[in-house]
Amino acid sequence: MIVYFLLLLIVAFVGYITGSVSTLRVASRFVFHKNLRRLGRGNIWISNFRRLYGWWGFGKLLLTEAVKDLIPILLGVGLLAIKGHGAVGAAFGGFCMLMGRLWPVFNGLKGTHHGCVAMVIAALSVDISLGASAAVVMLVVIWFTRYLSLGAIAGAVIAIVTALLVVDDRLCMLLSIFCSGIVLLYHVPALLRLSQGREERLSFEQDITYKFDENF
């Protein structure tokens, strides 16, 4: 029991710290070799980054995000497999990573984005159909509504329903539902903005105004 607790503690620590590390910082240092936070709006990573580097650059940022988020999940699988609970390790690693994403210790516990990518990756680690259904619904809603927050909400709802239907392991199912539920709660302010017509839409148009910034 003590060994099991220590393994969970290691996964929790690495997962939370990994989630807390900004993808923009990682991509700035190792992929684009430029301080991305000094360009454009600098704080809304999805919309701002796509305007700056287009869809190809956005794809590279998304890949950086996915690789970073897989670290605690793979660690959870490797460590908990020692006790025969690799699937639980994956789900727990994804859960702790999502907590770091939404409440990062390096940013005063203030998340810089919605955690929808982390939610999908955590769901995929539990069950392919769970993650795939959440991702497809999220992307479809974002495409047709242009609201990133609405897509995250729809993906979280589908993830909860799918987890109840397809995940056999009770602990993995509960962790998946808890992750999706937290994403839903995190988007309550966005729902209020949507109801008031104040939520910002995701633009698919190219914006070159950042080139006039002093820091460019």
Would you mind describing this structure in some detail?
The structure is a single chain. With 216 residues, this protein is mainly alpha-helical. The protein folds into 2 domains: 1-111, no CATH class; 114-200. It has 9 helices and no strands. The relative contact order is 0.13.
Number of helical stretches of at least 4 residues: 9
Shape: globular
Strand content: under 5%
Distance between the termini: 54 Å
Low-confidence stretches: 207-216
Average of per-residue pLDDT values: 81
How do the SSEs run, as a string of H and E?
HHHHHHHHH
Radius of gyration: 18 Å
Helix content: over 70%
Number of domains: 2
Biggest sheet character: none
Helix/strand class: mainly alpha
Quantity of strands, as a count: 0
How do you describe this structure in short?
This protein has 216 residues and is mostly helical. It has helices at residues 2-20, 23-30, 45-80, 86-102, 116-126, 128-145, 148-166, 170-186, 188-195.
Layout of secondary structure:
Elements: H1 2-20, H2 23-30, H3 45-80, H4 86-102, H5 116-126, H6 128-145, H7 148-166, H8 170-186, H9 188-195
Helix pairs in contact: 1-3, 1-4, 2-3, 3-4, 3-5, 4-5, 4-8, 5-6, 5-7, 5-8, 6-7, 7-8
Summary tags:
mainly alpha, 71% helix, 2 domains, disordered C terminus
